[in-house]
């Protein structure tokens, strides 16, 4: 069986001119740009230099040769950084729509939060958003769902940017799963109200990817890792989504903004029933003394949340507890979790035995509805 697939989580590797082509002349030397030194390429911005980590671009490679060592653009498949080549790679696997997270700005756009010059940071956010909408998504109309980032240090400015980009067709924004580890106010304050109001007004999906709160669980710092990323941390990544979803569900946000749409990316789905059960129990047990007087966490999970999975047979067993209409498939191209170029095989192994209606919901219909993106309008072939 050949599946039509809608991937709710992939990643773009930005090319070296994304920012220098778009920021003001006065910022071109300090905005992100690529330099060559020896046999390596480095991103340089403000007073920082960083290399492209190999694990971010393993598409087409055997796991036997995975390495976190720095790599050049020439070491990657063109589909990592070229939208037309990416579309061809997607279509080769039956993937006809894709939502792409950023790489250099970090998945949630948190890189620019750390910039000392906030005028530069603001221009870099807007430059990335123009790139993703006007260059990446426009290269193959219908293939890529425009997802933006925001000015995390300035919620009113972020709200303005959300409206600007919504007018250009943006359907989603990547946002940190937890703001507190980033040194920002929590969801229990009204600090983020301009943001939540803006995504409500524009009907924009809030995508929360694992690791956007600054890292993944690392119980043993001496376990094999590269810059905090290794087998242990990757295996525990669902913990981030668990923490975020429960935290947000008990905050005032869902009561104040009951129509928000939050999509948890790469955190899997198997943890959801346990999280809901425990959250409801503790909410009811402690609501009086804690002053909680709002919707049950389970109502938020079933009304405002969606969850992404790649290959998770255990999670599929509990799909009715999660809600079949809440589950999205993701490819995660070009990262280490991705089944590409064997996406069809991976999907068949996990959901092949399911009823046809459920298979269609998980592989594309749920994503179509969430992102308001009709996959029928996506291309079935890319011109040479």
Automatic annotation (TrEMBL):
<keyword id="KW-0456">Lyase</keyword>
<dbReference type="InterPro" id="IPR006680">
    <property type="entry name" value="Amidohydro-rel"/>
</dbReference>
<dbReference type="InterPro" id="IPR032466">
    <property type="entry name" value="Metal_Hydrolase"/>
</dbReference>
<dbReference type="InterPro" id="IPR032465">
    <property type="entry name" value="ACMSD"/>
</dbReference>
<keyword id="KW-0378">Hydrolase</keyword>
<dbReference type="GO" id="GO:0016787">
    <property type="term" value="F:hydrolase activity"/>
</dbReference>
<dbReference type="GO" id="GO:0019748">
    <property type="term" value="P:secondary metabolic process"/>
</dbReference>
<dbReference type="GO" id="GO:0005737">
    <property type="term" value="C:cytoplasm"/>
</dbReference>
<protein>
    <submittedName>
        <fullName>Amidohydrolase</fullName>
    </submittedName>
</protein>
<dbReference type="GO" id="GO:0016831">
    <property type="term" value="F:carboxy-lyase activity"/>
</dbReference>
<feature type="domain" description="Amidohydrolase-related">
    <location>
        <begin position="75"/>
        <end position="372"/>
    </location>
</feature>
<dbReference type="Pfam" id="PF04909">
    <property type="entry name" value="Amidohydro_2"/>
</dbReference>
